[in-house]
Amino acid sequence: MAQHEHVRVAVIGSGFGGLGAAVRLRREGITDFVVLERADSVGGAWRDNSYPGCACDVPSHLYSFSFAPNPDWPRTFSGQEHIRAYLERVADTFGLRPHIRLGHEVTMMRWDNDELNWVIESANGTTIVADVVVSATGPLSDPKMPDIPGLADFPGKVFHSARWDHDYDLTGKRVAMIGTGASAIQIVPAIQPKAGRLTLFQRTPPWVMPRMDRNISGAERWLHRALPSTGAARRGLLWGIRELQVSAFTKHPNELGLVERVAKSNLARAIKDPALRAKLTPSYRIGCKRILLSSTYYPALAQPNVDVVASGLAEVRGSTVVAADGTETEVDAIIFGTGFHVTDMPIADRVVGAEGITLAESWKDGMQALRGATAAGFPNWMTIIGPNTGLGNSSMILMIESQLNYMADYLRQLNVLGGRTALGVRTSAVGAWNRRVQERMKRTVWNTGGCTSWYLDARGRNTTAWPGTTGEFRRATRTVDLGEYEVIRPRKTDAAGAVVAGKAVAEEVAR
């Protein structure tokens, strides 16, 4: 058998989740690990999404690691270039570069029941064996392109917002923007001034709140550098405000009425044309889809070179794009802001567990994982930003750090158990956790607000969002409960090599 590199932990992806996992591993004294990244640089979603106007809708001081505060954020809501630069600094500051393998796209991960480890194959032909895999590919890593009849024969330019073609000049072009999500509302104001004609295809209008963005003054930045506690206090205040808002999303959606009125006022101030305002007014409860922040989106739509088609794209005929309502428009370029594979992540097709089936097959009826981290049938494998860990009003970095706590204790438990050991989460534990989450989900605005969103899977189940506070999730992921796991040891064989005890021994050990 060929000899392959063996590591204690393999981390997949180098966005916030992957780099955060790498930092935590080093802080736990684990240096025998690699970070496998398919691209040629770190950054994850903040590397891939470089479209004009790209920025975060979470305040800067909350959208950063608690262990790596940045006193020099230039704006209250930072742009893509600043967040990506921050992640590059994290990689340098914490000495992660020697562990990072760029250009290593994982094509398959297979669990070896005999050796109790993962065999990881990469597109570049390398194979790595790891005792534990931490999958941090993220839900916003693989763009979703709709299957539109005739699109393949379109003679102009076509690209997704997450794969922006910076070599293509939009000046004077007739552009079709497909979608009205978080990316689209940033792209539209950025490209409207240069486009000859911009047509927005809108299936469902979003709720848009004013974006209270500003430059952070030099004095503020000096203060945060000189007295780090002031930056921590700022972060704590931002966190606390959002924690207080959670119950309106998860328990009492009717309390969002005031927020809805503010959003309607924002729309009315910018859009004077009653017909256009009617097109842009949502018919569902605010918060059902992610609330978007922009002070420039509505003013851009009111410009004379912009048309809003209140219908999705249905067909392409040559250089003509046709909406579902029959509207036809001649365009030179089509930009898709149609989101990502969130509930059907492609990485799930590349993970083969103990029973010889893929994670995608295991999740065919919907994603579920214990505490958003571990899946039944996949020992010593966990995911960062897993099922039901998404947020509707706060920073995902808070959820990532909680899952890193869980990862760290998982590895500690393996060390305490000693030897070649694996932890396989019990199906009953995953089921119990998922039932509690889904029961709580019934009251949330995401399930009751009257919309269809990317939070829901093909069966209409919300397998994406977390129906509680970030503090509650942190408490739930502080430590690993071994009662929820099966401890797996190597199989015992007789002198002839026949298996005399396998999984039954593992179950006995777990008790």
TrEMBL record:
Gene3D superfamilies: FAD/NAD(P)-binding domain. GO terms for molecular function: monooxygenase activity. It holds the Pfam family FMO-like. It is an enzyme of class 1 (oxidoreductase). The keyword Flavoprotein applies. Its EC number is 1.14.13.-. InterPro entries: FAD-bind_Monooxygenase_sf, FAD/NAD-bd_sf, Flavin_mOase-like. Belongs to the FAD-binding monooxygenase family. This is Flavin-containing monooxygenase.
